[in-house]
Amino acid sequence: MLKIGVGLIKRFFLCSFVFFAWLVLGDQDSILAKERARFWKALEDKLVQCQLCPRRCIIPLGQRGICGVRENIDGELYTYGYGNPVAVHIDPIEKKPFFHVWPAAKAFSIAVAGCNMRCLFCQNWQISQARPDEVMGYRLSPEEIIRLSEEYNSRWVSIPILNRLYSTSICMIRPSL
Question: Whole-structure pTM over 0.90, yes or no?
Answer without folding.
Answer: no
